[in-house]
Write a structure and sequence with these properties.
The chain is an alpha/beta fold. It is built from six helices and eight strands.
Length: 164
């Protein structure tokens, strides 16, 4: 799976075995910690998830989607999102403790830059891909429809700081 920059240049490639969850990236390429999967296809409203397969699952359901490539979120990833066209981010991480931690971190880091909503996949599913496989696109659409705005005041820091 190609990881691209916001300008659509290939920055790294993820390889995965057909069976099992063994994967690796291109040696010497841009580290995944500096990239956001799918950032070049981000739209005003975009779903954020952990893995590329989950982002592809959301796209199958008709949503723009990005992935952070795991459960780590840093300032580099935050800044890529801030510089993107995203105005509203639907946070839809995995249904586990690591996913919940990522969910809270993303909300905190992006507060004031984009509106955030929390979407939860069906409890019996680990992630978006499992929900898609078991229940189809309607399961993801339902999760997005039921998403709730995050608490806290939203002030668009991107536009209010540009004029200064």
């Amino acid at each position: 799976m190609p990881w691209r920059t916001a300008g659509d240049t290939i920055a790294n490639v993820k390889y995965r075995k057909i069976y099992g969850k063994t994967f690796w990236y291109t040696k010497g390429a841009e580290p995944i910690r500096n990239l956001v999967y799918g950032i070049g296809q981000a739209e005003r409203t975009t779903v954020l998830c952990e893995a590329e397969i989950d982002a592809l699952s959301w796209r199958t359901a008709g949503f723009a989607a990005i992935a952070v490539g795991g459960v780590a979120f840093n300032r580099t990833k935050r800044d890529l999102i801030i510089r993107s066209p995203i105005e509203e981010l639907i946070i839809a991480t995995d249904n586990d403790k690591a996913g919940e931690k990522l969910r809270q971190e993303v909300e905190k880091e992006l507060r004031g830059y984009v509106r955030t909503r929390q979407a939860y996949i069906r409890e019996e599913c680990k992630d978006a891909n499992e929900a898609l496989v078991k229940y189809g696109v309607d399961a993801l659409r339902e999760s997005a429809e039921k998403s709730e705005s995050c608490s806290g005041l939203y002030v668009n820091l991107r536009t209010s700081s540009r004029g200064k």
